[in-house]
Amino acid sequence: MGKGYMGRILVVDLGTGSIEEETVPDAVYETFGSGMGLAAWFLYNRIPAGADPLGADNILGFVTGLLTGSGAFMTGRWMAVGKSPLTGGWGDANAGGKLSPAIKRSGYDGIFFSGISPKPVYLKVIDRKAELVDASHLWGMDIVETDETLKSEVGKNVQFAIIGPAGENLSLISGIANDKARIAARSGLGAVMGSKRLKAIAAGGKQTVSVVNPEKVKELNKKFMAWFNRGRETMAKIFSAKVLNASGRFLRVSPVGFALSGNQAKALLKKYGTIATNVISAENGDSPVKNWSGAGFRDFPVSTHSDKINPQRIVNYEIRKYHCYSCPVGCGGILRINDGPYPVGETHKPEYETACAFGPLLLNNNLHLIFKINDMLNRAGMDTIGAGATVAWLIECREKGLLTKKELDGIDIGWGDSQAIITMVDKMIRRDGVGDLLADGCKMAAKRLAKGEEFAMHAGGQELPMHDSRYDPGFAVSYALEPTPARHTNYGYQWLELFELNRIFKDLPARPKLFKAKSRYNPDDKIDLLVVASRYMQFVNCVGACLFGVQMGGRLDLPAYTNAVTGWSHHPEYYLKMGERVQNLRQSFNIKHGIKPLTDFALPSRAVGSPALDAGPLKGVTLNTGELFAKYLEKTGWDTSTAIPTQGKLRELGLDDVAKDLKP
Ligand code: SF4
Hints:
The structure is a single chain. By secondary structure, the protein is α+β, with helices and mostly antiparallel strands. The chain has three domains: 8-204, Aldehyde ferredoxin oxidoreductase, N-terminal domain (Aldehyde Ferredoxin Oxidoreductase,  A, domain 1); 260-463, Aldehyde Ferredoxin Oxidoreductase Protein, subunit A, domain 2 (Orthogonal Bundle), CATH 1.10.569; 473-662, Aldehyde Ferredoxin Oxidoreductase Protein, subunit A, domain 3. Helices cover 41% and strands 13% of the residues. A hairpin with a 7-residue loop joins β15 (332-337) and β16. The longest helix is centred in the C-terminal third of the chain and has 21 residues, at 572-592. Residues 74, 96, 269, 323-324, 327, 329-332, 546, 548 line the site of iron/sulfur cluster. Iron/sulfur cluster binds at residues 74, 96, 269, 323-324, 327, 329-332, 546, 548.
């Protein structure tokens, strides 16, 4: 058995009830990594072409990172994988918390489920002993209720992955939760779990992750910690809500771009979490406003709107920080809300994506609505981005007279209308009335009602995240061309600034600290870096690292950690190649399942600035995505007219069998 990984997976057929342990060859780990790479290797080979995502042939996997459990900082993410019912192609979603090391302690690098159980069940797996347990009594419970019930039944030292009512109701925007509110929310994999009648997994045990060079891991942690603590408190004091508000206004008009840095990231994430940029992003154009049709300074101004959801107002409710496994940052938080119109009590702090999807996107400045909706969606296990974008679509359709009040079950809903938004989200969760039409996201809603398709902001059915591609065209590439579309956790130009990959890959240029703001519309100087970032992020997902660790300016040296844990002695470029292999295998999965990436995952015209906005920092911006995408595809080694990996690229990566499958 190798080091860092357990060397085995658990394969469960829910139709027959069979539970088998399978050994994974060492070469698979060294070629594909673990995590997303292990999943790509397994799912590409085992899910038949054309499988129904909600049928018995689809496989739902829970995979851990290669570094998870090794003690390396910020490497505790797990990933749900399967064929996505939302896009019809490769699906994945990841979350932090404490589940991933628990799966590893149960003895496995991953657990894969096929088939459909005749009744609701959960899988209990502790120290390589696994059994399917009747979950009829849990069916219908929300995430928090299920978590607490399972804790009393199975034990406190066991961690859970759970679906709520949204997953049970096969909502295509449902996810899978652990730690009560860390949700692997994207790709609609909660519905896959629901279709299999798998309510939860409960994992734990005492199996240990062996590490070849634990002293080196400690040394890398120590070096990271020394940098992390240096100057952070001072910087955090400087970043008051007033300074953040003023920064947003300044950045809106500044002709000079200021590169983001790991030093800012460490201070802001520790102090506020991801909500740190709520106000800045609404002002500078990063955050889409009014379903991507508005301008922050005009439609969501600081004075009356964005300041109302500023990060300080949110952390004023924080009673303790929340840390994922092995993370010194603790960007999460537990709030206590005992005042306002929706006193939800103890609840998880909303993330930036949630605050924006239910803030500027809907022109809502009621912070308590955001707390309430966040709590509702976390309990239901529904994607907050998907839900917010679907409500935004609905409001715009209503505003433009495409939908009548009667069609909305008598609910009149407008921009920023708190109570109507809550009622509509509740209906979506329960699939009640018009909520049934909305529960599968904005693409399906527009299709079913045959209305407002042009206002449905999605790529391939996956709702676009809260980073505007017109502000950062790097996200346009990521949203449209990655094997999993509409994903902000891959890369954009802003992420490139934060990644500072030149600290790890010495041949890359250092990021300039200042640049002309308009230069972000010239792709030539950034395409190479986007290609590297894409490959690196696949590797990041193979080792189970947190995106925010990567955003610490290259100080979280994942290739060095990987060598220390596994005993391999590969050059950092080896791991880029690993990432590239995984990226190509995931894209090949899409092609095998009939996806035509350039048409099926095309961006809505608004997301590329057609028509261009009439005001604000993005006024007049229209992206030349034809040129941008062609350059990216050429560098990636994919056919520029189809985005299919070329035969030469697949063979170069050792994916000869895949090349044969895809041969025209
Ligand atoms: S930075 Fe936040 S999301 Fe990432 S590992 Fe730490 S606590 Fe979890």
